[in-house]
Amino acid sequence: MTKLLMVCMGNVCRSPMGQIVTLHLMKKAGLASNIQIDSAGTHAGNGKAPPDPRAKVVLSRRGYTIGKSRSRQVIECDFSRYDLILAMDQANLKDLQRLCPVDQAHKLRLFLEFAKGVDNCDVPDPYYGNIEGFERVLDLCEVGARGLVEHYQTHYGLPQIP
């Protein structure tokens, strides 16, 4: 089983959205039994907050199941526990690189590296903005998740998403 970790700053907007969308598309592609996806934040507090209400709204509008995820902070054992750790932006990637043991650094990448047709590999933080910012993040998460699914289909010879 492949284990993926999506990482943003507070783990209430981007990384849970990426996790939910990626899991949804992995299920649709028949890959869900081969993959485990979690999310965390580089600066998430200990409050175990649910996803931002605006994230829930945009996800629900597009038919995604939100579940009962709670925020958590990246911890040292995450670097050995997960096979691929995907940062939502350069700033969080740098934080992960600073925290990551050298022998695990090969697991760190940007989520949007897998996206096709995206010029900038940063998913912008919508936290201080309006609902349209969350819509944009969801658009990017869908493109990134599709690219990630295609990556796994290519590596494992599995059928393409319909």
Rounded Rg = 15 Å
Order of helices and strands: EHEHHEHEH
Distance between the termini: 23 Å
Helical/strand content category: alpha/beta
Helix share, percent? 25-40%
Indicate the proportion of strand residues: 5-15%
Specify the number of helices. 5
Shape: globular
The CATH homologous superfamily name equals Response regulator
The CATH architecture name reads: 3-Layer(aba) Sandwich
What's the structural domain tally? Answer: 1
CATH class: Alpha Beta
* Poorly predicted runs: none
Strand order of the largest sheet: 2-1-3-4
Number of E strands: 4
Within the CATH hierarchy, at the fold level, what is the topology? Answer: Rossmann fold
Q: The biggest beta sheet, please?
A: 4 strands, parallel
Could you tell me the mean pLDDT? 93
Overview in brief:
The protein is α/β, with parallel strands linked by helices and 162 residues long.
Description:
- The chain is α/β, with parallel strands linked by helices and 162 residues long.
- The chain has one domain (2-156): Rossmann fold.
- 40% of the residues lie in helices and 13% in strands.
- A four-stranded parallel sheet has the order 2-1-3-4.
- α1 (14-28) crosses α5 and α2 (53-61) crosses α5.
- The longest helix is centred in the last third of the chain and has 26 residues, at 131-156.
- The chain is globular.
- The model has no long low-confidence stretch (mean pLDDT 93).
